[in-house]
């Protein structure tokens, strides 16, 4: 049972909006049962000669294909390939490089991305050079450089630096390189890297796409057939494929991404504004607060500020962690983007794999705290922070 195509009065095919696409794509393979939601295809292999052309789940499964259709629709992409995790998706892209290739990356990236480049791909001769894309001088320094790939996150993890995707895409293309944007922190609902000129949009679908902290996944989206071929090859040849069950869960999560993101954005904006203006904290970061250094870029390229707020509480690492353990609704845990609020201490958790001096150089201090603001009642979240940190609410 496929989706019916709708046509406008002029006869052209109408593209559904985000919320509609999230609910009405990725529904193939419902057989003749009439099941409204496709089942989980928990099978490792398929009988030879089947109509879907499936052979072995490492190289494809109906649940992968459904999630791939949904992700392509949500990212305005021609193609999407799903992987076992965000880190698997990163591995798939970097596996296409050769010894001697240079990757130009934003200096503030997710700790495990740094670790992969530093501890794994460096051994195979892939060189990575880090730059601060919020510094005007970077642009001049990079003009005319030869590179195999440009790599940024926007907003970045955990500093929430917002990078002008359109501008980096032009620079990358002038250097003869494709641009990859890790869109995990923004989400497909709020930001479309490919529409802004990027060649690849990568997400850890573990986060906002799934939204319920119960599955791991990653995806790479593009408009380029040769990238798609390379990603499908990496999925099967490197064994980076997800499980059908995780794909099914992420497909289910994606159907409510729009309304979840609206609430994440509303809660995070309120919380950030409250901590900055009413509690008077000096170092609250949120892309949609006017005080954010790249606020103007954020409102231009994102539909909302997403659900992450970072605050530097100016305490030492031990005291910071102690206060975080006292929170009731924000669980101290790795990850982000779920309906439930989480809090993370990047210096000892997500970015612990980056050496301390490097971490400090890019602004990840011992007192930096990253809140993943969930969709609970905002009053409860504000009160929780006030109680744990001793602020008068
Ligand atoms: C920006 C970013 N990219 C990639 C990843 C890796 O995703 P996963 O944990 O699904 O492997 C993460 C995980 O936190 C992340 O924050």
Descriptive report:
By secondary structure, the chain is α/β, with parallel strands linked by helices. The protein has two domains: 18-254, Type I PLP-dependent aspartate aminotransferase-like (Major domain) (Aspartate Aminotransferase, domain 2, 3-Layer(aba) Sandwich), CATH 3.40.640; 257-389, Aspartate Aminotransferase, domain 1 (Alpha-Beta Complex), CATH 3.90.1150.10. Helix content is 35%, strand content 13%. The strands form two sheets. The protein has a seven-stranded mixed beta sheet. A five-stranded mixed beta sheet has the order 8-9-12-11-10, with helices on one face. Helix 4 links the parallel strand 2 and strand 3. The protein is globular. The structure holds pyridoxal-5'-phosphate (PLP). Pyridoxal-5'-phosphate is lined by residues 85-87, 110, 112, 153, 157, 182, 184-185, 204, 206, 216, 218.
Descriptors for this entry?
globular; binds pyridoxal-5'-phosphate; 2 domains; seven-stranded mixed sheet; Aspartate Aminotransferase, domain 2; alpha/beta; five-stranded mixed sheet; Aspartate Aminotransferase, domain 1; 393 residues
List the helices and strands and how they pair.
Layout: H1 18-24, H2 62-74, E1 79-83, H3 86-94, E2 102-106, H4 111-120, E3 127-131, H5 136-142, E4 149-153, H6 165-174, E5 179-182, E6 200-204, E7 218-222, H7 225-237, H8 244-254, H9 257-278, E8 284-285, H10 295-301, E9 308-312, H11 317-325, E10 331-332, E11 342-344, H12 356-361, E12 368-372, H13 378-389
Parallel strand pairs: 2-3, 2-4, 4-5, 5-6, 10-11
Antiparallel strand pairs: 1-7, 6-7, 8-9, 9-12, 11-12
């Amino acid at each position: 049972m496929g989706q019916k195509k709708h046509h406008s009065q002029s006869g052209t095919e109408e593209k559904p909006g985000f919320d509609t696409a999230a609910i009405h794509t990725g529904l193939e393979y419902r057989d003749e049962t009439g099941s409204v939601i496709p089942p989980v295809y928990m099978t490792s292999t398929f009988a030879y000669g089947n109509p879907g052309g499936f052979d072995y789940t490492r190289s494809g499964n109906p649940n992968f294909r459904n999630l791939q259709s949904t992700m392509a629709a949500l990212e305005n992409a021609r193609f999407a390939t799903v992987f076992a995790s965000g880190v698997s998706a990163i591995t798939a892209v970097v596996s296409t490089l050769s010894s001697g290739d240079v990757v130009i990356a934003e200096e503030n990236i997710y700790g495990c991305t740094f670790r992969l480049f530093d501890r794994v791909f460096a051994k195979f001769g892939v060189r990575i050079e880090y730059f601060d894309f919020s510094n005007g001088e970077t642009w001049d320094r990079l003009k005319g450089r030869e590179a195999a790939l440009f790599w940024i996150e926007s907003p970045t993890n955990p500093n929430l630096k917002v990078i002008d995707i359109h501008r980096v895409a032009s620079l990358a293309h002038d250097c003869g390189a494709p641009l990859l944007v890790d869109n995990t922190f923004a989400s497909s609902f709020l930001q479309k890297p490919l529409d802004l000129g990027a060649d690849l949009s990568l997400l850890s679908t573990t986060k906002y796409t799934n939204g319920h902290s119960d599955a791991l996944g990653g995806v790479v989206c593009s408009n380029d057939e040769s990238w798609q071929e390379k990603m499908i090859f990496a999925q099967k040849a490197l064994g980076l494929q997800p499980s059908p069950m995780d794909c099914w869960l992420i497909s289910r999560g994606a159907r409510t991404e729009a309304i979840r993101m609206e609430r994440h954005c509303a809660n995070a904006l309120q919380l950030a504004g409250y901590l900055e203006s009413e509690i008077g904290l000096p170092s609250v970061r949120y892309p949609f607060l006017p005080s954010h250094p790249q606020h103007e870029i954020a409102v231009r390229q994102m539909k909302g500020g997403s659900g992450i707020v970072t605050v530097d509480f100016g305490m030492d690492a031990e005291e910071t962690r102690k206060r975080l353990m006292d929170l009731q609704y924000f669980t101290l845990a790795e990850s982000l983007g779920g309906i439930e609020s989480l809090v993370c201490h990047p210096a000892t958790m997500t970015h612990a794999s980056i050496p301390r001096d490097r971490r400090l150089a890019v602004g990840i201090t011992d007192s930096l705290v990253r809140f993943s603001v969930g969709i609970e009642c905002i009053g409860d979240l504000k009160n929780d922070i006030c109680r744990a940190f001793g602020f008068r609410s």
